[in-house]
Amino acid sequence: MFNAVLTLRLAKHGVDIAIIGFFAWVALLPTFKFLWAPLLEKWDAPGFSRFWGKRRGWIMLAQLGIFTAMIGMAATSDDTSLPLTALFAVTLAFWTTTLEIAADGWRIELAPSQSEQGPVVAANLWGYRSAMVAAGSGAALIAARADWTWAYLAIAAAAFAPFPILAAMRGEADARGGRWASLASGVVASGIIAALVTVATAAIGWVALRSVAAAGVDSDSNITPFVLVVCMLPFIALAFALPRIRKMGADAPWRRSPVAGPYVDIFWRYGYATLAVLAFVSLYRVGDVLALTLSHPLWNERGYSLDQIGIADGAVALPASMLGVAIGGWIAAKWRLGPALAAGAVVAALGNWVYVWLWWTPPAGWVLYASVALDQFGNGLAGTVFVVYLSMLVNPRYPAAQYAFLSGFAFLLARLLAGASGTMQKAVGYDGFFLFAGFVTVVAVVLIPFVTRVAAREPDEEVITPESVFGA
User: What pLDDT score was predicted for residue 465?
Assistant: First the structure.
């Protein structure tokens, strides 16, 4: 609702393609979820967690935040004030990400091994993708018959529906409060927190927009070179920090820190191989993120109606995605990770490249539906294998925080480039853009033989050997 559906909404309102590309940077927020993930590991959600526990408590708080942000997006659905549109899109991204942090930590705790993660990830993604497809398809179909306000209100109501189900569930065995008292205090605390998040987002956004305007950036600016430079900065910083991290003992303050400790632990355990792992995860999903950013504007440009887009996003995308997730879960559980990751990358690239064919083919319903089916099948397969791979990298001591960091970093490059997708499309066209998207995904295959041999360092091992970096 703050990405694919929003880009379609903006395109229908005639917003410049470069500005639409800039809105893809809203999705950068989940990339930085490691900044507040330790809070969800260390502290309970006010009110809710007293009865329902830490994980469910945070999920309930996040659901209320999602509902209020969606109402804000409905109230600004005419897009006459793009800063207001951006404000509620960012707050929606924040609450969606908060929910993901809590859910991912819960999932990894439930299934710590690769064989267990395969089916659990498939089940998780079936629900996740069903909701995503239902929202995308439902919003387009409702907007075709009413308007975007009703579309966002309807999806807001659907997003709220699980809240009373959670509220009706039994509490934790060691619950520290009653159901109704915990519910009431949680709702009040959620309202206050949601208001504070919105105000803080507005203030930060105002400063950011003023700074960008002062720098002279507009829809005609070529920002791609700047974005690529920014993408390299994390790798450069990590390369300088790794030697010191590798020498830290068990009592080092950075390793014991409740905030930084989970992240320092990743680099301490994997050493210099961390750079190869981060390079691989940064490339693996670039094509799918870029395709998601401009696929809907592409369909709109080719003249497909909201009804056709709604069918493609729903009746076509859902079964294709579910099939991809199912096969991806089976592959992740039965195959070695190397071949599974390679298969996912190739199929995902084909799903990106099919849009080149769509661009050059006269508009027809079956062309759109066939393209979406292949794209969503590849996305589902690659995404499932990738989630299992990331889950196997985390230390069971910090499942939520470390998965938040790895999954966030995995989409840093992709989402930075997505923000420049509009200017890239202006330079190379839709066909060149989607050719590039698939090519980047295939490039990640080169790193698979290296990253699948990476082995974690034993606890407080002092000797650094090739075996401790890349495995036996």
Answer: 38
Chain segment 296-317, per-residue pLDDT in tens: 889 988 889 888 988 888 889 8
Residues 91-128: tens digit of each pLDDT? 999 999 999 888 887 777 777 676 777 777 778 878 88
Amino acid in the structure at residue 218: D
Domain with 366, as residue range(s), is 4-470
Q: How far is CA 126 from CA 79, 122, 123, 158, 325, in A?
A: 32, 6, 5, 17, 7
Nearest by Cα to 229 from 420, 22, 33: 420
Question: What's the CA gap between 58 and 401, in Å, rounded?
Answer: 14
The DSSP string of 316-375 is IHHHHHHHHHHHHHHHHHHS-HHHHHHHHHHHHHHHHHHHHHHHHSPP-HHHHHHHHHHH
Query: Are the beta carbons of 337 and 389 closer than 8 angstroms?
Result: yes
Whether residue 347 contacts residue 294, with contact meaning beta carbons closer than 8 Å, is answered with: no
Tokens of 379: 């996305």
CATH code at position 84: 1.20.1250.20
231 closest CA partner among 412, 26, 457: 412
- What whole-number distance in Å separates Cα of residue 73 and Cα of residue 413? 27
Q: Structurally, how many domains does the chain consist of?
A: 1
What lies within 8 Å, CB to CB, of 339 at 6+ separation is none
d(CA 48, CA 125): 26
d(CA 315, CA 369): 9
State the pTM of this model. 0.68
- Poorest-pLDDT segment among 167-176, 197-206, 257-266: 257-266
Contact between 61 and 186 (Cβ < 8 Å): yes
Beta strand extents in 255-372 (DSSP E only): none
- Residue that wins the pLDDT comparison between 472 and 62: 62
Taking the C-alpha atoms of residue 363 and residue 369, their distance in angstroms, rounded to an integer, is: 11
